[in-house]
What does this fold into?
Amino acid sequence: MRRLQRLGAALGLMAVTLSAQAAAPSYELRRQTLASLVKVRATDCPDGDRAASGFVLERGERIVTAHHAVGGCRQVVVSFEGAEKDKLRPARIVRVHAAGDLALLEVATAPAAARPLRMAATAPDPESVFAGLGYALNMPSASDIEVRFAVGARRLRDILPPEAATELERNRSRIATDREVLRFNVALQPGMSGGPIIDATGAVIGVVAGGLKAGAAPASWGWPSENVRLLLASTEPVDQVVTPARTHYTLQDFNAVSAALAANRSLRCGDLDFVDTGTRSLAELMRGADDWPRVQHLLNISREDPALLANERFQVWLHRASGATAIVPAGYQLRAEGRVCVARSSQGPFEQVVFGTPAPGQVSVYAASKQYEEQLALARLIPWQFLQFDVQLTTAALSPITGQMEPTTLGQPTGLMFARKGVIMRRPEGLGHAFSTLVARSDTFLGVSTLNRVQHPGLTNCPLPATPNAYCAGAMAHLREWTRFVLATQLSTYPTY
It folds into this structure.
């Protein structure tokens, strides 16, 4: 076990010292800003109904919102937060800035209490604290999330998972992925798209963007306020059709997540509380893969039709504050057991172990990784003897000391750092196997492992496809179940923001 390399200095680089003097929107200012919030709903769209947020700008009748929520829809209605929030008002699109995914709506009349927001006159202070406001997951009332700027890449194409960016291209999205965006230290929720991001004076420094399907959790960012100015001056056609069902969350998606949250299923796995947000298909989850070569390898060794496997469902467990997301195959019950949560197969030799903990800084991340690997995950397989790393499932690099490939940590421009390790071992029952995802971001650590107590010997001597005998049929059943567990472990990660 001593050969298992820990997450270390690279993960610790994420720790950022923040100014104690940073200005932040006060509670009273955020409460007053709610009077500027508008809930947007579009119907008769090419791909189903949609929902988003918006805010009043310039005058009460004009509303900024997300273009992907209204483009190509025959009917758009809005409701203003406050005394008349239950009154629906027809709205029409009067301007579009497709590259910035923004639209300007207009209503005939607005409530007297509607409070137009103003645009910030100067660039935002990167040391300040801001607030993003909107209707997360299409909730009845608006809410806010406190955010800070995050370090790292700024161009949208550099922070999106490759599959999510490719899906935008397939869908002929006009969103300009070569533009710089606002990066924040927390994830903004689907449904908040089109909502304002305000500074300590109440000025709008950007617009919530995202709601983008990017795997287990949505991708989110902010459009700088310059895009609003481009929207107000735009002469683009306002009847541009947008079909975002494969790229953005729709009203049906919001309702599914809301129904799962309403069931109020939560578990404490380690020191973090995870909530059940419902199921996603493998095809959806793969769009946010942070380590695509390993996903492709797992698909290749599954011996299954990729098109059929893509429809398999997986349960998504979310730590709301950090976005840490643990994936479990649908149909397997995740339960708290001491310091971890465990999902196990009913007949096979598999266990999936989930653990999360705060980890602010290099020392904490190292300690969390060490504790998880040695005391909480691999300890469940004792006794075992290390044989070798499963190189196809391990993030590795050539060690200048040993001259051999050794496990290492990889990073992304988003600030996410991750390591994945496959370990082949000898156990009393035969060959065993462990595959772990070790990830850290936002001062938290997430560990997810699939433990295989004994590998079916038929995996090495049954032909392809398996012959119709009980022995090889058992080997293929073993492989199918293992595939689902390791895909769930592989795809456990953090959202893009």
